[in-house]
Structures are given as C-alpha cells and as structure tokens.
Amino acid sequence: MILKNKLTRETLEISYPEFRKKFAKEIRIAFESYRRTQLNKYSYNFKDDNSMEYNFYFQLHWNFNHFGNSNWYIERI
C-alpha cells in the first residue's frame, strides 16, 4: 500500500499489517467519524458495529481518506 503525506509529499510504501499498526489512531478516528455519519444517516435502521466495521474496511481507501483527520492519505492499495 502506498501512502502520501499531504504536507510534505513524502511517499511511504508499507504492507497492510504495518499500516494497521502505524496508523491505528488515525484509523480509529476515521472509523468513529464514519460510524457517526452512518448512524445519523440511517437512524431508523440501526446497524450493528460489526457490519459497520466490515463496510468501513471494505472501502478503507475512500473511508480513510475522507473520514480521517490525518496528514497521510492512501494513494493506492
């Protein structure tokens, strides 16, 4: 997976397990933002956390880049 820094344009090529370790805080923040958005969107159809987490990781590329508050973004998986 290739990540790029928005500020310095530094490129980082790491494996998925390394990404999960190094960016655990940013992933958690992005997931919480995604979860709040989904709960507000579908208040009549409450989704459980397991299906929300599955959907978040299924589209990790888009969700991390748009719901996260990080200087890094995923350029390619």
Task: Characterise this structure.
With 77 residues, the protein is α+β, with helices and mostly antiparallel strands. The chain is built from 4 helices and 3 strands; from the N terminus they run ββααααβ. The chain has helices at 16-22, 24-41, 49-58, 60-67, and strands at 2-5, 11-13, 72-76. A 3-stranded antiparallel sheet has the order 2-1-3. The longest helix is centred in the middle third of the chain and has 18 residues, at 24-41. The model has no long low-confidence stretch (mean pLDDT 90).
Q: What would a concise description of this structure say?
A:
The protein is an alpha+beta fold and 77 residues long.
Report strand %.
Answer: 15-25%
**SS field, number of helical segments:** 4
Q: What is the overall shape? A: elongated
The stretches of 5 or more residues where confidence is low (pLDDT under 50) are: none
Please identify the structural class as seen in this structure: alpha+beta
Q: Give the strand order, joined by hyphens, for the main sheet.
A: 2-1-3
Mean pLDDT: 90
- Radius of gyration using CA atoms only: 13 Å
Q: Say how many strands there are.
A: 3
How far is the N terminus from the C terminus?
4 Å
Largest sheet: 3 strands, antiparallel
Helix content: 55-70%
Order of helices and strands: EEHHHHE
